[in-house]
């Protein structure tokens, strides 16, 4: 009996504690803290459901022999076997090499070209706003549609690309195929990627150039520093953090590059343009080796994150110099 | 000394002209492939594959007619007993010994792009605005960690999460549905929306809201009546960036949809004519698909930099 009373007391006490909020204050709306959580929670929940949960699922699948096309098959936990298979597969190393080469060439060309263009546009010539917008257009387009259309431009018999090359060099247009040739196909994707994404680097470099205060150059003039010296001692160091940020964003995107290359060469001829993500798609959605491809996906993911983290450390070092 | 006139701060006239010439040449090289897409859309199939490539040609709407219709080839006898063509497109198709069998799937796919693009844009901007406001104005525990978590979800390769999303969607019946794709693109875009909008809202002086609070507005009223109108430009810019992403996305659309909810990017490259790809029709589809983005890009010029860097570089 005593227990019941105390229980009732507790409920009464709790009710009393719950109501003291003055009606007036409640009408004034939620507390700031309440609003903060109300506003943030939906986003966090959505990301947990559609990003984090699938990622954890991928990690789990990577330790099993699950196959998505045979859901009835009993799923077995097989430890690190998938990882071992991925890492001992020469095809995987081949695709990673292709990806690394693609990254090196596109990043090198686009960095130089993007910086040079930004430097030129910063001269503020007449109509620079209009021409800048023209240069920026390709990166806003759909890579898949663009990739598909470039296959048309690359046709050896009828395409514009071969015609233009032969017009300027005299090489007969039907003597080379950009996307059918083992040696030229990687360059075909480098060309399209450069066409699409140089503006990205250019735009960020331009922001870097515009952030350099004029007085630095004026001071250098007073000190009689040559333009060359000004370029290497002021322009380059001031733009470098911006440039490195641009390269980071582009490298992450190019590492997961899929759409453009699928439509352009779909990894061929043979597998000379088979980037890691294309190989991954084949393993996951054509061969349906779900466990294996999950392990591969995790390895790629860890690689990107590891590399990005090291790079960000370097970036911060440059910034704080 | 003349070197002052040649400094970076005040480049001389000749430096400007030289710089301008190089940039204009690069811009022209850039624009040629896009103009070629546009032109090919108005060629006839024989003109599109003639060699040398035709710069001058008689414009034709055949590509667009072929894009929106499916056609069947008929015998001359059959063609003769048909009633005379009712419309110019009927006439155009019949001049190639074909009759229109029905509409193509392009309209449907384009509509899917519109529904999924605008649906996910609305949802990501809505969620993003709320979260960005909270991150900008309130003391949220672990704020920096949460912000970084939100950004890091964007760095995941789509294929890494595509397999479980595929399985998950299959289990709950969301695969190949508009809702499923809207939720997915929202999840991808919301990170961009939060980061961009936080930057825009940070720039609105807090004094405006404080004045509103003193006038007796609640926090929510102050948010709706003071902050939102001030952030309108930023919200519009963010919306267009989200739309551009959802509009152009290909990997998820290819892997997770097969028909009902398929968007245009995986569809356009598959438009087949007689004997291979129908290039004028593909080009017509690409043109219709690219035009909205080109228009938005021109409108967006000022905000471009912030949008493509998640606001990491301020301009």
From TrEMBL, chain A:
The keyword Nucleotide-binding does not apply. The chain crosses the membrane at residues 35-60, 98-121, 133-153, 184-209, 230-252, 292-312. Its main location: membrane. Keywords: Membrane, Transmembrane, Transmembrane helix, Transport. It comes from the Bacteria. The keyword Phosphoprotein does not apply. CDD domains: TM_PBP2 (cd06261). This is Carbohydrate ABC transporter membrane protein 1 (CUT1 family).
From TrEMBL, chain B:
It comes from Tepidamorphus gemmatus. Keywords: Cell membrane, Membrane, Transmembrane, Transmembrane helix, Transport. It is found in: Cell membrane. PANTHER family: ABC TRANSPORTER PERMEASE PROTEIN (PTHR32243:SF52), MALTOSE TRANSPORT SYSTEM PERMEASE-RELATED (PTHR32243). GO terms for cellular component: plasma membrane. Gene3D superfamilies: MetI-like. The keyword Flavoprotein does not apply. The chain crosses the membrane at residues 17-38, 114-135, 147-169, 181-201, 222-247, 279-300. Residues 110-300 form the ABC transmembrane type-1 domain. This is Carbohydrate ABC transporter membrane protein 2 (CUT1 family). It is a multi-pass membrane protein. Its main location: membrane. It comes from the Bacteria. Belongs to the binding-protein-dependent transport system permease family. GO terms for biological process: transmembrane transport. InterPro entries: BP-dep_ABC_trans_perm, MetI-like, MetI-like_sf.
